[in-house]
Amino acid sequence: MEEFYTIQGEGFHTGTAAYFIRIGGCDVGCHWCDVKESWNAELHPPTSIAHIVTNAKKYADTVVVTGGEPLTWDMTALTNQLKAQQLKVHIETSGAYPLTGSWDWICLSPKKNKLPKQTVYDNADELKVIIYNKHDFIFAEEQAEKVTKNAILFLQPEWSKKEEMTPLIVDYVMKNPRWRVSLQTHKYLNIP
Ligand code: SF4
């Protein structure tokens, strides 16, 4: 769908430069999704992997594959060719489809309406739960039970609810310090 060089705004790698590859196609249907234009893959004609890899190499040593939902598609060919160029390859996924591809970092952001596949829970390096309402704290704890003990746990306010939810997250993390706060810092910085 698009490629761009920017700063990772969320989660464990916040603040680090990375080349983002946004894959078209997602049927998870989050009502607060901020990239609804990604949903219909038909609107985003295929781009050759060679073209993407050539671009990525020019900018960064880390690539973040995001969407849409990248695991809608088999990620094997793309990740193999990125890694063949010694790029570190990260994914941002809802985990709604089986894990394909070879990843240096898996950020799992589960969604209630299409829960992750077990292989994604098993391999997640980071669990990032979006907090839209108070019930999402319960959902976050349920999801934390499904990842390994090595996964780093984040709570992130949904952008339109950040005034309401951020203080609740701060309070929650202080009471439950195995969680960390994640903010969409790229939106505060007004960068992609
Ligand atoms: S999984 Fe991601 S891209 Fe898909 S609807 Fe939800 S927020 Fe949007």
Structural commentary:
The protein is an alpha/beta fold and 192 residues long. It is built from six helices and eight strands; from the N terminus they run ββαβαββαβαβαβα. The protein has helices at 49-59, 76-83, 118-123, 135-144, 162-175, 185-189, and strands at residues 2-7, 17-23, 62-67, 88-93, 105-108, 126-131, 152-157, 179-181. Strands 1-2-3-4-5-6-7-8 form an eight-stranded mixed beta sheet. The two termini are 14 Å apart. The model has no long low-confidence stretch (mean pLDDT 97). Residues 26, 28-30, 33, 35, 38, 67-69, 94, 111 line the site of iron/sulfur cluster.
| Overall form | globular
Radius of gyration, rounded?
16 Å
Small ligands present: iron/sulfur cluster
The SSE order reads: EEHEHEEHEHEHEH
Beta-strand share of residues: 15-25%
Can you summarize the main beta sheet? 8 strands, mixed
Q: Which percent range fits the helix content? A: 25-40%
Number of strands: 8
**Poorly predicted parts:** none
Which structural class matches the secondary elements? alpha/beta
Mean pLDDT: 97
What strand order characterises the main sheet? Answer: 1-2-3-4-5-6-7-8
Helix count?
Answer: 6
